Structures are given as structure tokens and as C-alpha cells.
């Protein structure tokens, strides 16, 4: 389609929707959006009227946050990975709902920081969401500055509440048994696969039956991780072998929904949270609730019991050898049913690694 089929300067962006593609039209590249249509080249009079209205340069205070968000979502500032794009879009659209009718210039005023903080306090109950609200909204405002939409903003250097270091949190055998008593079978499989492999949540939902291969000593899971792109070789523990054996014939991935559909990482995590609350599993010592991502400490101990060295465990988990040792020590401390055997194996592993 020739560019002359559109008014001069119009920038067209295609976005995939359930019905096919929808086209977004901007008065110029980086300019205001004035039209959306399923047609690639609209011919209705209202399209041209909207374009004419959008090309008159707006007053500075008429440039609203709603318009800024639309431009940002269509810009090259958006991350390339689908999951990251979803996170950014979720939070900047929430920001748009709150401030969409306000001029972007308001964030040049120091008093705007108080309004910004009042907005993100809606998620104060969840430190991670509280921090994400601020992080993505500041990313939007930084982009506005870099694109010359505003001169500056006063929402930088925000205080964060969430601690990303959760590797010391573990699911104990008692936790797992309590969970299994209330959670449906397909949800139990999510937790057990995490506890037996230590894979990140985004990787867990991708594990397929054909990722398992025979070795001279048994079986192993051969899986290319999504975050670092490394190939992980994970021995098949007794629990993992039972999980694979119980997978119905013809089911490609180990984890599916109740209706047999593919699981997203977010949905899998949400189900663990939902049924953990039903099971009344106690929080960690510092009050933090256990999540699906916290199965990695449990998995480290499973792998030690499968005779992996501390160095091998550390490589799989992305930890240091010393830290892997510390996490397993924590597991032994809070899991009295397994503490003696775990402690003995850990001591032998330490001696092999000369960790003192």
C-alpha cells in the first residue's frame, strides 16, 4: 500500500487483536493518536476530519496523560518480550485510568509527587505491586522527558518495600502435605513440579514430556531456561518421576488447567496463592507469604538428596556455592522430619567443596 493512500505525515501502527488486526493512526510519528480502525486505509470523512483536528498544535496544558500513555505504548520504549510488555501495559494503563484527564505538565510541579504516591498506595498491601506501580509509572514519565513532552518530573528515587531476595524461603514437607489436602490435583502438580526442579515459574509451565531423556543412571530433564538461555540438566527425583508417570497420555506439557488448557506463568502462580490461603499455610518467619517462586529452596534440597554436588545445585539455581549451602541449612532447620539426613548429606557436600 502506497504511503500516498494516507494523508501526508500520518503514522500508522498495527496491533494484533482477537479479530485480526487493528490499526492506530497518529498525526505524525510520536504525535497524537486521532483514529483507530480495523481498516488499514480508512476512507470515511470522519477519519480526515479527525486528522485535520489533530494537526493543529495543542496548547501545552492540553497534552494529557491519556495521550502520553497511548504514544508510549506504541513506541520503541516498550520491551521486546511479551510478558514484560504485558506488565508495562498493565501498570501504565492503571496510571492512565487515574491521571488520564490531567495534563502531563502537572508532573513538572513538586506537589505532584504526593498525588503520585497516593495513587501507588492503593497497592501498599502488596510490596511487590506497590513497587511495580512506581517503577512502570516512572518509566513512562522518564520517557516523556526524553521525548520532550515535559522538562522534568519529581517522581524519581522512590522508596521501595519489596525484597527480591526470597531464596531462603522454603516449602516444608508439612506445608506441601497441607496444600495437597485442599488443592485440586492439577494445582498440586504445579507446586510439586516447582519443588522437584527449582525452575522459574515462567519455565515450569513450558516443561514438556519430551524434555525428559534416558541416561545410564536413570532419567533427566533437559530444559533450556528462558531467562539466561542456558540448558539445564536436572536429574529426575522420585517425586518428579511419579509426576511424569501420572501425566495423561497425549498431554504435551506436564502442567495444564482443569480443562486441559496451557497454563500461563501468572495463572499458575495465582492458583498456588489461592490454594495456599485455603490450606492456611503459615508465612515465613518474617511474615512474608510463600509463593510458587519460593519452591527453589525446597528443590535445592531435593537435588542434594539426589546426590548432586553443591556446585551443580548452585549452577542450576543461579546461586553461589556458599549461598546454596545456606539455603539447604535453612531447609534442614525448618523441616525436622528431614533435618538429620539433610544435614549429613550437606556436611559431606561441604567437605567436597571445602566450604567453611
UniProtKB/TrEMBL annotation:
Domain Tyr recombinase span(s) in chain numbering: 166-344
Phylogenetic placement of the source organism: Bacteria, Pseudomonadati, Pseudomonadota, Alphaproteobacteria, Rhodobacterales
The keyword Signal belongs to this UniProt entry's keyword annotation: no
Translocase as UniProt keyword: no
Name used for this protein in its record: Tyrosine-type recombinase/integrase
Superkingdom assignment: Bacteria
Pfam families hit by this protein: Phage_integrase
UniProt keyword annotations, A-Z: DNA integration, DNA recombination
